[in-house]
């Protein structure tokens, strides 16, 4: 296990290089000059040129990239072009908010998805199974921003049960977490159903039934444990989707998290801020995938991680 984790940590290095290169090249193709944006539309050409020189924007692209990568491995993500503040400091303020939102969303994804999937698998092709799968299909199909606006309109504007936007209390978490977790719950429900139906047809399940074990013992102790492996994979992938979904959800609910920070940075062409935000989000996703691989071993001792 230790060697496996060490090997995966070493593999993070090419991931960092790949992410920084892709984001750097994409940001170079975005229209607009960061120096002009910082100096203002009415700034003179001399002021803009001086600003470009101070920021290093007049150097060749490969020099800018290698300089940035070298600073990244030193723990320096650069300064924001907008306010000249360290990018890492801004990320450390925004990241806990996004992680909190992602945590509650993934809990909704797991709990609702597993419950719905088990209900469908226990009574396949019944009314409850069909109903759950129809709801799951709707959940997968609904765009997160549209669902967020719908929930906001119903529960905040009409019923006035929950706050419209912000991130100041527990009540503010409910609607964004549901918005972000609903689609993932639908996917987990479908995967749980499929995996459970495959497992309950195995010989050891029939043997357990023949021994007279109670239905809930067979489902939760024998069937569910072995059916969780593909579900864990889906949950890990959904966490990555949640990090991407926070960009829209945080904008809809006016949450000052990492996703909204990246959106604002793209609008102002704040290249260091965009690169830093995407890099940190990618690293979080990599570590979540590592945790998923370790969970495989926890639920199935026969799996060889090497």
Automatic annotation (TrEMBL):
Subcellular location: Cell membrane
UniProt keyword Transmembrane helix, yes or no: yes
Main localization, broad class: membrane
Membrane-crossing segments per the record: 12-30, 101-122, 134-157, 169-189, 227-253, 273-292
SUPFAM superfamilies from the UniProt entry: MetI-like (SSF161098)
GO (cellular component) term, any one: plasma membrane
GO molecular function, one term: nickel cation transmembrane transporter activity
Keywords, comma-separated and alphabetical: Cell membrane, Ion transport, Membrane, Nickel, Nickel transport, Transmembrane, Transmembrane helix, Transport
Assembly notes: The complex is composed of two ATP-binding proteins (NikD and NikE), two transmembrane proteins (NikB and NikC) and a solute-binding protein (NikA).
Assigned protein family: Belongs to the binding-protein-dependent transport system permease family. OppBC subfamily.
Family matches, as PANTHER family: DIPEPTIDE TRANSPORT SYSTEM PERMEASE PROTEIN DPPB-RELATED
Name of this chain's protein: Nickel import system permease protein NikB
